[in-house]
Write a structure and sequence with these properties.
Shape: globular
Number of domains: 1
Strand content: 25-35%
Number of strands: 7
Distance between the termini: 37 Å
Number of helices: 6
Strand order of the largest sheet: 3-2-1-4-5-7-6
Structural class: alpha/beta
CATH topology: Rossmann fold
Largest sheet: 7 strands, mixed
CATH class: Alpha Beta
Helix content: 25-40%
Bound molecules: S-adenosylmethionine
CATH superfamily: Vaccinia Virus protein VP39
Order of helices and strands: HHEHEHEEHEHEE
CATH architecture: 3-Layer(aba) Sandwich
Length: 205
């Protein structure tokens, strides 16, 4: 995937109050669903400017904020420096190409990225590989829509049926704990529900 669109959008990404409201709603939902502890290491995948990661960082030991857009990661670097946030580090990473060896995370979270990823099976396999035993995964994305959410750009997925996504996670050995709508985005006079799906390794307690 070309990163040009997101590189270009990065500098003004956080100016959009709709995005800030969505991140706040997802962070609040994660807070009630995922038993985060200050000992946990976390990965935010497809972080953009890491709006969500910055909201959760003080609940966690560390957050790697990963994206394929260097422009987005520049914004993350600037925000961390400006806010004195030391436990959130940007990283250029494409997990559809495989997971880095020798690294695990207690918590992986991702918002509004999955629908931009063609090979979701490869990405989910990397998530499963990177999750520590007992680790948690939280995925927020659009519920299945008719394509009208992105009228001017081609994306590989028009949202997801969370139950079907859960079956895809099961192929990678992950068990869905719960999913539910946590927010609605308004665009072009229409409303688009956003779900949060939480999961962990099938053998976790
Ligand atoms: C719609 S934005 C969401 C950004 C952020 N999570 C948010 O909620 O504001 C999608 C992000 O996914 C990133 N992305 C797209 N494909 C990716 C991939 N294969 N791996 C990592 N990041 C990807 C884009 O660069 C962009 O930052």
């Amino acid at each position: 995937m070309s990163t040009g669109h997101f590189d270009h959008a990065a500098a003004s990404w956080d100016d959009n109050p709709t995005r800030r409201a969505m991140s706040a709603a997802i962070a609040a939902a994660i807070d009630t669903r995922v038993p985060m502890t200050p000992a946990w290491t976390a990965l935010e995948y497809g972080c953009g400017t890491a709006t969500l990661g910055f909201l959760l960082a003080d609940r966690l030991r560390s957050v790697v904020a990963a994206d394929i857009s260097a422009g987005m990661l520049d914004q993350v670097r600037q925000k961390a420096a400006a806010g004195g946030v030391r436990n959130l580090q940007p990283r250029l990473l494409d997990l559809t190409q495989g997971a880095p060896a020798g690294e695990t995370f207690d918590f992986i979270f991702s918002a509004m990225t999955l629908h931009h990823v063609d090979n979701t099976a490869a990405l989910i396999a990397s998530f499963a590989r990177l999750l520590a035993p007992g680790g948690w995964l939280a995925l927020a994305d659009l519920c299945a829509e008719d394509g009208s959410f992105h009228p001017d750009t081609v994306v590989p997925h028009h949202g997801f049926d969370p139950a079907a996504l859960g079956r895809q996670l099961a192929v990678a050995g992950l068990r869905t704990v719960a999913w539910r709508p946590v927010h609605e985005l308004e665009r072009h006079g229409r409303r688009y529900p956003v779900f949060l799906l939480t999961a962990n390794h099938a053998f976790s307690g």
